[in-house]
What does this fold into?
Amino acid sequence: MHHHIMPTYASMPVRFLKGEGAWLWDENGNKYLDALSGIAVCGLGHAHPEVASAISDQAHTLMHTSNLYYIDKQEKLADKLCELTGMNDVFFANSGAEANEAAIKIARRFAHSKNIQNPIIVTMDKSFHGRTLATLTATGNLAIKEGFSPLPEGFYHAPYNDINALDMLSKQLPNIVAVLVEPIQGESGVNIPSADYLNKLSDLCEKNDWLLMLDEVQTGVGRTGSFLASQQNGIQADVVTMAKALGNGVPIGACLTSKKATGLLTAGSHGSTFGGNPLACAAALKVIEIVERDQLASRATQLGTQMAEAFKLNLKHCEHVVEIRQKGLMIGIELSTPCLDLVNKALEKKLLINVAAGNTVRLLPPLTISDDEAAQITTLVSDLIIAH
It folds into this structure.
């Protein structure tokens, strides 16, 4: 049957009608274990009762007024985010791409404040920052840019996890103003840089008076074992972008600034009709409260380590496993051959997984899963990989 939806997604042949915790039910009543969380969105699992109540209460009270007026829940959320991250202020948007658009505009404003003509923002090969024109240009993947030129100017791609390459660039390109980077590259297969990469990057940005802009859209809200992944490096970025898990399914994005990025966006220079609306902010406040109260960041570390150990044990004789990469509950298992078919095979086994970069099984389960659910995921995925 044809539905009037643009064919932009190669969707799987399943419709989910209900969820609870790490489980989803399709229209035929089949039950599936979700090891993907809507791509790192439902960090608290599906239909979390406290989040649902917060949304319902807010919807019955006030959903939208616009940013022409102060918004109580928005102020509370901004204060909470800055308290947890050490950042100074926040612009609220509705998605990760929108948060990154704000970051890009901040970098351009920064360039203007320094009288730099034709400023360049450096992003990384294999990065992903969104699909708006500016963020897909920033993204280090040629395939998603196909057929969309002319693309905005002012972006330059460098190899990820390579400080020397950036240092050399700094000598060749005097008009660099910012580096936009993911602490862990999610879309390209859970690429985890060396432990001191972000520290060296932070030093390099400091030395050259560049903005360090961290895209924590996929890594944020406890996923990697701390509220922001970059906090494990003890660094303070100039700009941090967040979205995905912040609303547990309610669309919300946030662009946080500190240090030399603070105050660059002034009244009238940026805006969003729905950004920071009471409904989305009520959801995000409740999400953060639960992540803190239930210590889900440390739970992510504990569970992720457990799962990685189980995978190493289960797959130790499996010749086509190249590498198992893991930080908190962000897990990538790279195979030596393409394995996109594993997504359908997992679906047949009532398990939701993802394959990134063509050959890496990517797991992003809810931070709320039980030890038993985690064990079910590792067993099912290991069996699928061994049989591949």
